[in-house]
Amino acid sequence: MGWLKALVSFITDPIADLTGGYVERKRIAAEMAADVARAENNFKIAQFNAKAKRCMQAEQNDADYDLLVLKKRDKTIMDEVIILFFLGLFVCHFIPDMQPYMRKGWQAMGYKGVPLYFEFVIVGIAVSTLGLMRLFRAFWAVKAKGINALVRS
Known about the structure:
Elements: H1 2-72, H2 78-92, H3 99-108, H4 116-130, H5 133-152
Helix pairs in contact: 4-5
């Protein structure tokens, strides 16, 4: 009977090894898939946390910038000169007698109308005068959406 047991063992042991190895490989593959899914979720969470941290830092930077601008305005007169110059240009666009000169001036510089950067200068004056960095960010977001809509069409 021992020889029969050895024969059966000789035939069944390799099959058992194959199936046992297969089961082990499946278990390892399942563990690896779970580890990959866990790592992907941790990566997404880290991305969201980093984005939230950047937003909070941007808010703090805006507040710091506003305070710095308001403190420095007391020390120079050049700010007022620049502000008056650009506000003068801005107001000239609304005076009927000055409008042809303004249009020809922009055309002489190669623009079809008032360039986009002039709008940014006017917003920048509001930012620097009133300390409204958040307003500037909102203005930039609206402009970016408008520009993207123009590019798509």
